[in-house]
Design a protein that fits this description.
Layout lengths: L1 E4 L2 E4 L5 E5 L3 E5 L5 H11 L3 E5 L5 H4 L2 H6 L3 E4 L4 H5 L2 H8 L20 E2 L9 E5 L8 E5 L2 E5 L5 H7 L7 H13 L4 E4 L9 H21 L4 E2 H11 L8 H18 L3 E5 L2 E4 L3
Parallel strand pairs: 4-5, 5-6, 6-7, 10-11
Antiparallel strand pairs: 1-2, 2-3, 3-4, 8-9, 9-10, 12-14, 13-14
The protein binds zinc ion.
């Protein structure tokens, strides 16, 4: 664990976790991407009563919830994320659109259930400010403490964008609006879940915006010919040199589908047959 600022700590991992120690309670922002990580975290933060604040419900942020729950911790998240944390099978159900194939039952997609509740101001210190940053997931939330903001997956650094090839999101418009909110915050330090804490995230936020715009443009251009969604995914992944496997295909399809509804809203594309989209400006 490293101290970031008065009583605010980080434990770095595949998914960074925040820690805020008050006199009575230790707040933990996300619980990491593995039970092993969460065990280490538990042993490092000591015996005080713990409260978990999840930024969102993706498996790599909540894998340790079950361990914290066994340890008596209460778990809170945005009300739109709570059903997914309580029943993580919904995550795969949404990705696939039906009872999912076995690849989406792997732990990468599926955490163990825990009894999360919607954020309640009475139960959480007023020093923990809840900042709504939707787009990456429906109820993505940043947690601001002592002028440090734990951003969850509201933006990604250049290295992460290079590693994962695209900024996963479910709502383009909200994701872009959340980037603006992030930039306007009056804080001293930004802590993304994947990447390094920084006082100035400007270039990473810009890279994230550019990456989103690049995919929006490629999808639009590719739809000069009418295409079914899955053929579109294949063409865009080839153009952008993205290798998909049986599981990541469904994440990518979800990402591309969010771009389709964004372009539909701005009247740039139309669905000309069920499941087939094309530019409206031919
Ligand atoms: Zn995420």
């Amino acid at each position: 664990m490293e101290l970031l600022k008065d009583n605010v700590w980080i434990k770095r991992g595949n998914t960074n976790v925040g820690i805020f120690k008050t006199n009575k309670v230790t707040y933990v922002i996300d619980t990491g991407s593995s039970v092993k990580f969460a065990k280490e975290l538990l042993s490092e933060i000591g015996d005080k009563q713990k409260v978990v604040l999840n930024t969102h419900s993706h498996a790599d942020h909540i894998q340790g919830n079950v361990l914290f729950e066994k340890n008596g911790a209460k778990i809170y998240a945005n009300e739109l994320e709570v059903p997914f944390i309580r029943n993580p099978a919904l995550e795969s159900l949404c990705l696939y659109g039906a009872n999912p194939p076995k690849v989406l039952h792997l732990s990468f997609y599926l955490a163990k259930p825990s009894d999360a509740m919607p954020f309640e101001s009475e139960a959480i210190s007023s020093e923990c400010e809840i900042v709504s940053l939707p787009g990456h997931s429906p109820g993505m939330t940043g947690i601001k403490i002592n002028r440090v903001i734990f951003c969850g997956d509201a933006y990604f650094g250049k290295n992460i964008l290079e590693k994962y090839s695209y900024p996963y999101l479910v709502n383009v418009k909200k994701f872009l609006a959340s980037l603006e909110i992030l930039q306007d915050l009056d804080v001293d330090l930004y802590v993304p879940s994947h990447g390094n804490p920084t006082p100035d995230p400007h270039s990473d936020i810009e890279e994230t915006k550019i990456a989103v715009q690049k995919f929006v443009n490629v999808v639009f251009k590719t739809l000069k010919e009418p295409l079914y969604v899955e053929i579109l995914c294949e063409k865009v992944s080839k153009k952008m040199s993205i290798t998909l496997n049986n599981g990541t295909f469904y994440l990518f399809r979800s990402f591309i589908s969010s771009i389709l509804s964004y372009l539909e809203e701005s009247k740039e594309i139309v669905e000309i047959k069920p499941g087939m989209w094309t530019s409206s400006k031919i």
